[in-house]
Amino acid sequence: MNSTEDGWPEITVKAVVLGVLLAMVLASANAYLGLFAGITVSASIPAAVVSMGVLRLFRRSNILENNLVQTAASAGESLAAGVIFTLPALVILDYWEEFNYLWVTIIAGFGGLLGVLFTIPLRRALIIESKLKFPEGVATAEVLRSGQRGGADIGYIVKASIAGGVVKLADSGLGLWHGTMEVAKGVGGSIVYFGSYLSPALLSVGYIVGLNIAVLIFLGGLCNWLLAIPIFAACNDWPQVDGAAIGALEWAEQIWKNYTRYIGVGAMVFPVMRTIPLAGNQLLSAIVVQIGQQQKMRL
């Protein structure tokens, strides 16, 4: 067990077990959200709130244990995001025909290990020398400091989870209503489409990421369904089955599935490719500094 100079225990059995459990739960939730909505949300603040609520059940707990739990949960969420945003490409490229659990586990394990190793040289470049504000880290620290609010805030998380689960069960499980509303109509040789989906998960993600990101995602959807798909439909022949033209809705979904959804992938890849040289310079300088410090320590 690790302790600080003040005598507070940090690495305890209950903190490690709770951190692993929350990492599994929040990683699963983020994997679902990432594949469903194309975006993940940070697990740090929810994990901090949940850990404070759970650790309050024990007679002795402290802020260092809460910090350990939220760090473990955040690492699980980050690992899940790394998996769902990269490995599906192997299926899209027809390199994989299915997701093999063993290989996914091995790749995720080495990816997580590589991420931990990269944090060693990047810590100086991104935290010590950089002027980044890290607003989410600051917010998480404030949540941990205000530990007396943990018991109340965890109630909101539990109620929201139950409400979302009930709506999802009524929609997908019991079929009490149809969550998707969509309509398409052929206009000339093109298509006009409108659709909406009632989802507590999407509503929650939009609230968490904020108005700016939510508007950008919404505009991306508008450009795809109201510009790219109609233009593609107008420039190509309407498909037919047994001599009869397929429905406008089916044609629009085929265009999105086979062609236009990759526009969004390109929009994400371009800024990444632009950022790689900048990150490479920071990484190189951080490694040089790290090697220099190691040589000074040996002397």
Walk me through what this model shows.
- This protein has 299 residues and is mainly alpha-helical.
- Helix content is 72%, strand content 7%.
- It has helices at 13-37, 44-55, 63-84, 88-92, 101-128, 135-145, 150-173, 200-235, 248-298, and strands at residues 180-187, 190-197, 240-241, 244-245.
- The protein has a two-stranded antiparallel ribbon with strand order 1-2. A two-stranded antiparallel sheet has the order 3-4.
- A hairpin with a 2-residue loop joins strand 3 (240-241) and strand 4.
- Helix 2 (44-55) packs parallel to helix 6 (135-145), helix 5 (101-128) packs across helix 9 (248-298) and helix 8 packs across helix 9.
- 18% of the residues are buried.
Describe how the helices and strands are arranged.
Elements: H1 13-37, H2 44-55, H3 63-84, H4 88-92, H5 101-128, H6 135-145, H7 150-173, E1 180-187, E2 190-197, H8 200-235, E3 240-241, E4 244-245, H9 248-298
Helix pairs in contact: 1-3, 2-3, 2-6, 2-7, 3-5, 5-9, 8-9
Number of strands: 4
- H-E string: HHHHHHHEEHEEH
Rg computed from alpha carbons, rounded to a whole number of angstroms:
24 Å
Q: Considering DSSP H and I runs of 4 or more, what fraction of the residues is helical?
A: over 70%
Q: Would you tell me the overall average pLDDT?
A: 78
* Arrangement of strands in the largest sheet: 1-2
Give start-end ranges of low-pLDDT stretches.
none
Ends distance = 32 Å
What class, by secondary structure content? Answer: mainly alpha
In DSSP terms, counting alpha (H) and pi (I) runs of 4 or more, how many helices? Answer: 9
Proportion in β-strands: 5-15%
Query: What overall form do the CA principal axes indicate?
Result: globular
Biggest sheet layout: 2 strands, antiparallel
